[in-house]
Every structure is written in C-alpha cells, then in structure tokens.
Amino acid sequence: MLPVILILGGVALLASSCTGTKEEPEAPKAEEKEKLQPASPYSKEAQKAWDGWKKRFIIDLPEGSIVIDKQNIRAPEEGMGYGMYLSTRFDDEDTFNRLESGLDNYFTKQNGLFYWCLTMSGQVHPRTNNVLHPHTSSADADIYLAAAFKNAADLSNASRWKPGKGEERLRKAQGIVNSIWENDVFKGGRLIIKPSDGPWPLWGDGHVVYNPSYFTPHFLREFSEIDKNKGHDWQKVIDDGYDLHFTILSNTTALYPSGQNPIPDWVLVKVENYMFKVKSYNHIVRDNEFDAIRVPVEIGKDAIFNNEIKAIGFLGGLLSLAGVSSEAEAKIHGEATTLSRSCYGIAVEAIGDPMNILPGFKGAITSSFQEDYFGFSPEDANDYYGQSTILLTITR
Fold it and tell me: Which long-range contacts (CB under 8 A, 24 or more apart) does 11-16 make?
C-alpha cells in the first residue's frame, strides 16, 4: 500500500517518509530557473517520437500549419497547444513558426482566444454530436498556448531562437493570459478554471461544469509572473483549484464508482457558503478516465517543479485510491499502456517514490520507445491525444 493520506482543512499530509512540511526551497537563480531544455532521461528516444509525431499529426495549409486528429477527422485547439508547447521543449523553432502562422490565420477569435475545432481544411467545424461547441475555446488549450508563447519568448531572449521576436511573443502570451482570466475563470465566490469561454459550462442552478485535468498549477504560477494586471489573483486560482481537487478526491465513489482512475473526466461544481459541492456530470462523459489520466501529469509537475506540498499529498491519495504500486498496475480502461504508465509515473516521481517503483515505470516507457508506435498498437498510431500526452510526460 502507498502512504495513508490525511486530509485536514483541504491540505493533504503524507503519513510516511514523505510526511511533514517540506522546507521552502531557496529562490533559484535566473540561470537555474530556466526550464527550456527537455530534462528527460529519454530525450534521445523522445526526439525520435517527436519527429514521428510531427510527421503524423501536422499538415500544411496555405496560411500556416495545423495539428490534426486523424481518428476524428478534425483539427482541435488542444493539438495546437500541444504542438506549439512541445516545439519549445524540443527547441524546434521551425515547427513553432509554422504552427504560429496556422494559429493566427485559422484559429484566433476576436476575444483573444481560439476556436476549439476546425475541419482539416481550416474552416470552423460544423456543430455535430461529437463537436458540440466548435466556436468556443478549450481552456486547457488556451493555457498550453499561453505557456508556449512564454517559452518561445524566453528562447528568443536567450538568443537560442531568432532574436527580436521575444517581446512580440511575450505580448502574445500576456494577451492570452488576460483573455483566459476574463473568459475562462469562474468568479462566483471561488476562482476555478471553466472548460471554455462559452456559456455552456454555466448551468442555471448555479452549477459549473468542470474538468479536473484542465487545472495546471505549474503554468498558472508562470501566468502570475507575466500578467501585467496585478489584480488578477492567479495564486487564488491555484489555492481554490487544489481545494476543489481534494473535494473531488474525497467524493470519488459517489462521482465515479467504476474504473480505476478515481478522478472523473467531468464533474458539476457549486459553491455554497464558500465550500465546494460536487456531483457527477454524466451528460457528456463518453470515455471515462481518458481526460482524467492527465491529472497526475499536471499536478505532478507542480510537485516536481515547485515542491508543492498540496500536490504531493493529492497525488499520494490518488495513487492509493487507484491501487497503483507497480508500473503493471498503472492502467487505463483496464489495460496497462504506455499512456497510463507515463502519466502515473509522473505521480510516483512527484511523491518521492516511497515504494521504489519508478525504475519499473521508466523501464517500461524506455522500452516502448523502441517500438514503431512507442507503446501503441498499429491501429492506435493515429491517436494524437494519447501520443501527445506521452510526450508531455517525458519532456520537463
């Protein structure tokens, strides 16, 4: 069994060798703080995977390049966020430039955010049963795009990319951050990330639709550094987000009684007397666990990068409820895949690996990169979402 988690006042404490308040790390020096290079032990294999990802999922249109979801025959905003962010992690300026042109010319809306879904020819996707809100943005993609432009600005300012573009790309990052605050942040007593800038997440009874995997505290901390409007309290978004996640974790049986991952893809949230109330949202849950598999990645990076004790406690509870004590037990939809292993591996690394199981995760992922589809069967080779998530887990 993994460590027992005590949840006290919304803060989880690990009852193990991880127990106790960690000392606050010294503020890193500027040169130490730079996180522009992939710090992955799999970087050689990952570079091959990145080259394969580009070949499979990026197409060129007359006014720029876009990322496509071949399985669903569409071009989602998330793909642009993943592609542009990964371009900065792999130091791939040419790919970033091509995708930036595609984003500017095909996806950008008047409010500073982006269309969620286009056709593979670059038109806004028509509304269908599988594409309900093509004209609204997707908040997780908005966040990744802002982070991508910030990284690109840092690379330009460090003269690793073309000089002179740093200020322009920082302004783009700041503009997206401001638009996220204005359009994607719910401000009803508590601050949480809505899944979209559209009206559909807001229910008339006071409930808000919420996707736990859209909470990316490691990026939100960076937003607080570059946001020119100091009235935007990103730290409160982080604090409230953690409170909400602990509430979801403590209600997991009622929210999602089946499946291994104790975090549901979607929930309904209501604020009453400053407390979060949550209930299941089954209306749009079609593929339980698949979105939620990103939760240990996004929370894990906050623990790894920022030594966040709330993240460590949350992940300890997540792993305990999921019953993951070896890489073979890291499953999604009942199967241990490269995707599930890589996502749970981040959580194991983040809590300090008290069971010494991280080598198994790393070995499984490393060996899978030797395969043509790095862990996927040939029929899943076009799964841009799964392959994107794997790359995000191994690039720091």
Answer: 11/246, 11/309, 11/310, 11/313, 12/246, 12/310, 12/312, 12/313, 12/314, 12/316, 12/317, 13/309, 13/313, 14/312, 14/313, 14/316, 14/351, 16/316, 16/354
**Helices and strands counted in the chain (H then E):** 14, 13
Q: What is the mean pLDDT of the chain?
A: 84
Residues 6+ apart with CB under 8 A from 307: 22, 24, 25
* CA 172 to each of CA 113, 142, 156, 169: distance values in angstroms, whole numbers, following the listed order: 11, 12, 14, 5
- Distance, CA of 351 to CA of 3 (rounded, Å): 10
Report the SS3 class of residue 185. strand
Query: C-alpha 200: how far from its chain's center?
Result: 21
Residues near 378 by beta carbon (within 8 Å), at least 6 away in sequence: 372
Total number of residues shown for the chain? 396
What predicted TM-score, i.e. pTM, was given to this entire model? 0.88
Q: How far is Cα 123 from Cα 194, in angstroms, rounded to an integer? A: 25
Q: How confident is the model at residue 257 (pLDDT cuts 50, 70, 90)?
A: low
Q: Is 201 helix (H, G, I), strand (E, B) or coil?
A: coil
**Class of the CATH-defined domain 4-18+58-394:** mainly alpha
Q: Letter for the amino acid at 139? A: A
Using one digit for the tens of pLDDT, what is the confidence trace for 112-139? 999 999 999 999 999 987 788 999 999 9
Start-to-end CA span in the chain (Å): 28
Beta-carbon neighbour count of residue 231 at 10 Å? Answer: 6
Element (H, E) at 24: none
CA distance 298 to 218: 7
Nearest to 381 by CA among 352, 338, 348: 338
For residues 300 and 241, the answer to whether their CB atoms sit within 8 Å is no
Spatial separation of the C-alpha atoms in residues 179 and 111, rounded to whole Å: 7
